[in-house]
């Protein structure tokens, strides 16, 4: 079992099911802050990653290029990109 799952279960007082997925909103798998973990399922997790990929493509000036995950994290820190927990998508602010 991964640390973030154990941490989440302890903080929330629940037992995660095998199909439950915890998404690291800031894309940093070492940041297990409870506010950085989003409980979801496989379909919604895929939707979140698709929205992330679309934004990473949209933010570059070159065709068929993509910004790095490190740049994506910086945009999150600067609140240029945000994550909507209800919709399960990233968006440019």
Task: Produce the secondary structure layout.
Layout: H1 3-12, E1 21-24, E2 37-40, H2 42-58, H3 69-77, E3 81-84, E4 89-92
Antiparallel strand pairs: 1-2, 3-4
Please describe what this structure looks like.
- By secondary structure, the protein is α+β, with helices and mostly antiparallel strands.
- The chain has one domain (3-92).
- The chain has 3 helices and 4 strands.
- It has a two-stranded antiparallel ribbon with strand order 1-2.
- The chain is elongated and about 45 Å long.
Rg measurement, Å: 14 Å
Structural class: alpha+beta
DSSP summary, beta strand count: 4
Distance between the termini: 35 Å
Q: Could you say how many structural domains there are in total? A: 1
Uncertain segments are none
Shape type: elongated
Biggest β-sheet: strands ordered side by side in the sheet: 1-2
**What is the overall number of helices?**
3
Largest sheet: 2 strands, antiparallel
Estimated helix fraction: 25-40%
- Mean pLDDT, all residues: 93
Secondary-structure element series? HEEHHEE
**Beta-strand residue fraction:** 15-25%
């Amino acid at each position: 079992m991964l640390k973030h799952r154990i941490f989440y279960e302890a903080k929330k007082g629940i037992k995660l099911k095998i199909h439950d997925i915890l998404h690291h909103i800031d894309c940093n798998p070492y940041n297990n802050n409870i506010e950085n973990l989003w409980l979801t399922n496989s379909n919604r997790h895929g939707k979140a990653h698709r929205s992330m990929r679309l934004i990473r493509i949209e933010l570059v000036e070159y065709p068929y290029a993509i910004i790095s995950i490190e740049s994506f994290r910086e945009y999150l820190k600067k609140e240029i990109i945000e994550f909507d927990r209800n919709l399960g998508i990233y968006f440019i602010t």
